[in-house]
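[scheduler] slot 2 assigned
[scheduler] job type: sequence-to-structure, two independent chains
[scheduler] chain ordering preserved from manifest
[runner] begin chain α
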Amino acid sequence: MRLSGIVCEYNPLHGGHFKQLSFVKKQSDFVICVMSGSFVQRGEPAMFDKFIRTEWAICAGADAVFEIPAAAVEQSAQGYADASIRLLASLGVDDVWFGSETESIDALIPLATLYRSEPEQFTQAFQSALKRGLSYPAARQAAAEHCLGSLPKTVFSPNATLGIHYINANHRLGSPLTLHALPRTLGVSGAGIRRSIMANEPIKDVPAFVSQTISGLQPVDINSLSQAILYRLRCMSIQQIGRLPDISEGFENRLSSAAGQATGVSSLLSLAATRRYPVSRIKRILMQALLCIDSSIVQSLRENGPGYARLLGLRVGAEKLLGELQQRATIPIVSRPAKHKDNDCFAVDIRATDLHALAAGLPAGLDFTRAIVRV
């Protein structure tokens, strides 16, 4: 039995995702998605809750959907990729497929190898680029081109960059998975679709089962949590902010000051952002603060990976897959959340669900009242 895995957000699921799932289904016996739950890696709440996004995934072709722990989602691309690959490996998946702006995975391997080894030549070029005032991503690109020569710009695109992290995460695990890159061909972006939804404009390039559902849902974005974010930061001491996993170099002082001056999350980000701390990194820090993600949880994830696999949804008729996963998995498959609520990492997932529900005007406790999605 050949099992394929996809790391996803489906925020929301669009035509490109549908095309990817359709292709991967033809290469596999079953397709398993590991999905960001209530929050996404950009440091924002998902636009819609994880249960409806799980339903979309199954309608589009997924056979099972598992949740990536929220504490892993709110890390850098490297931490997110590492936890996702570890989760898929722990479930016994054979292949992993990811969208990329490149034609194949071969275009990413030289850059992945360079980032993994970080020779002195790369380090010196990177530090030199930072001193010239380049941002962190631009400095890494300049250093890579210094070492490898001119490279296609596509290898530095967002999905290709995430693919490089998947490659290196798999390498660190001893390469138990076979990775495949699928060229992205859809013209519209997920960000563009989200903007249309928030502006109440017509939505293009999403399957009918998605567009029909969205019309009755309340979308959520980071502004939905604006006051909660400011309240949380203003209640924290500078020392407490400094202990958040992604804080270093005294940034806690700047963030605390910005929280005292800001009137909303947009002004907070404007006041706090620097070259070393771009908006995306700060938003992840804000989510770490809101969800009470401490360094011990993150350290455990980095050393051991996710210690459980939370099952969100299973396709009707895919019971054979669940039996196979229970044989292959090296970590517990969680289908009854109440039994795991005392696990520190799982407790973050529960807080994330409750916080998302608050932003969406829903009651708390959905992790315990919503059944596994079956479609």
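[runner] end chain α
[runner] begin chain β
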Amino acid sequence: MNKFLFKHIDNSGLIVFRIVFGLLCFLEAVGAIFTGWIRRTLIEPEFTFSFIGFEWLQPLPGDWMYAYYAIMGLFGLFIMLGYKYRFSMLMFALMWTATYLMQKSSYNNHYYLLMLLSFLMVFLPANRYASLDVKLNPSLKSISMPSWCKWVFVLQLFILYTYASAAKFYPDWLDGSVMEILMKSKANFYVVGELLQQKTVHYILAYGGILFDGLIIPLLLFKRTRKYAFFASIFFHLFNSFIFHIGIFPYMSLAFSLFFFEPKVIKTIFLKRKVYYEADDVIVPKYSTVLLSVFSIYFIIQIALPLRHHFFEDDVLWTEEGHRLSWRMMLRAKSGRTTYKVINAETNKAIPIKLNDYLTKKQQRGASTKPDVIWQFSQHLKQDFAKKGIPIKVYVNSFVRVNGKPSRQLIDPKVDIANEEWHHFKHHDWILPSK
């Protein structure tokens, strides 16, 4: 095991990946400013739906989130340039994680991946070549890295894509209906809009997604299929970028290919002046046991998290218990209509409320279809009225459609949601059965 993990290999792939990764971190942060994402998601809302347990994480007041993201963008540039690398990488990881946990209205698996990668990159010697750190301190320079630096990426990607593929094996995906719903909003796309409405295309995209996610990592690992898999990746990720507008993720996914091609190829293309490392040294550091323990725990958690929904009652597509942090990407379309009935607990009189007074349109979509968001909004109403000295009960009447099927009642209208507790590892009985 030591020979496999601590054998030194050329570090060209990691060095180039650091440069690309830093650039993408910069573009993600700056893009959030100029596309209006920060204003819509973090400034306009009265409050944000954070991950449960992180309610204390809320956006900075006023327009300070612009400065927050500008600083994150600066750290992205520092990562790209390799300047004070570990500090810059750690600060970006912490700041990105904070913004990830403080809001769920724009939940995205790609944001989760960026959070994980940011922390993984803190541990990697990605600044040992072509960096300002080396220029300022030449003793840091190295043309090699331990083999485990490559395999943490390979294993993380294998877990991600395998679960993404497995999650698609359910009727609504296999019969093309999910893809049909996703493509309806693309009908006005130039040239391809009409083509995307064809049922044959829906089947191709649905089964192509299963095959790509399930096979891409093994195919990239084998030399005979590597080039073909890479070209398939280019088409797949650029198609997703064009159709779904999912930010930096397609380009980051292409950058992962740096860890699958031979380091000599990467060096020849991107780092022509670099000396290629050809030795076969195995250097086991004193902290190897700690390192192995940390990464073993990390990957056990990564393997376990996407399985947890199997231990909850009912369908995760309906309850969403165990949905997040599980690589369940673009699997379903939900819509709903929900009303909140607020009752004065002392007088039993109804208190009229308007959702527009509390939530943005985007937040209202979550507060209409997602049980955890419905619960959080009920808690927010309870706290808001408590400040006025009014104890309340909140009853929710919610009808939800999944993948275009007939709507069904999601929440038990007889249960006072505001006075229910949240359980992270237990099914909530106030979520009505899907069938």
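[runner] end chain β
[qc] chain β: The chain has a mean pLDDT of 95.
[scheduler] slot 2 released
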